[in-house]
Specification:
CATH architecture: Alpha-Beta Complex
Strand content: 15-25%
Strand order of the largest sheet: 3-2-1-4-7-5-8
Structural class: alpha/beta
Number of helices: 9
Order of helices and strands: EHEHEHEHEEHEHHEEHH
Bound molecules: guanosine-5'-diphosphate, magnesium ion
Distance between the termini: 31 Å
CATH topology: Spore Coat Polysaccharide Biosynthesis Protein SpsA, Chain A
Shape: globular
CATH superfamily: Spore Coat Polysaccharide Biosynthesis Protein SpsA, Chain A
Largest sheet: 7 strands, mixed
CATH class: Alpha Beta
Number of domains: 1
Amino acid sequence: MTERVDTRTWVVTATYNERENLADLAESILALDLPLTLLIVDDGSPDGTGEVADELAEKHPGKFAVIHRPGKLGYGSAHRLGIDYALEHGADIVLTMDADLSHDPDRIPVFLAALEDHDVAIGSRYAEGGGTVNWGWDRKILSKGAGAMVRLASGMPYRDPTSGYRAYRAHILRDGHFEQALQEGYAFLYEMLFRCHRAGAQMTEVPIIFVDRQAGVSKMSKKVVFEAALRLFPIFWRRVTGWRP
Ligand SMILES: Nc1nc2c(ncn2[C@@H]2O[C@H](COP(=O)(O)OP(=O)(O)O)[C@@H](O)[C@H]2O)c(=O)[nH]1
Ligand SMILES: [Mg+2]
């Protein structure tokens, strides 16, 4: 892990074999010229993403930080660890985004503006002005269907509850006990929203254009999708009973 840095806005990204994308992401983050730190949580990527991340942290201290895990331990736990680390280091705001350039870093200022009067800003493909580029019909159906099921089970009204591009104020992460969100993949994403929702968060959706990755391959597996569907039942249960684990 890298040493303490002092910015109050942290961007957390999980990486597994994103070597080709990470340098471009870093360049875009630097070009924003905002006081923020990009925290890269790499799971021992065989393609050397972790080494690229280390080089960035060494070259731009304070702008980049890296956590290395020994192997592929999953998207949800990588984010939980990254969020925890950011809060421990004094973050007021934590953004999360994918490292494969599907989430355009140029939208970061829009998220930050939205957090001026909200606790959570969700990057939404289905808000007016949002969209997807280069997605096949299968991914579109999966994403829209997942969103509809989450709305049904959780009672949350948000149009894109499985979007990984979002921003949280630190207090709502703590109030929602983010550290207890143990799911993986999409289930982690909607569980985090559910926790914030139950903690009384003011949430908004900001439009994003999600561009499918140009380099590397998706790590989203059938197992993760299946688990995400299954984990809706406990969410529904928690909603109807009011149970708060
Ligand atoms: N550290 C870590 N990152 C992961 C893991 N699985 C996915 N990611 C990262 O999470 C982000 C989203 O994954 P991706 O495969 O693009 O999912 P998709 O956009 O839904 O197809 C990317 O930055 C991946 O590198 C994992 O097990 N560990
Ligand atoms: Mg992706």
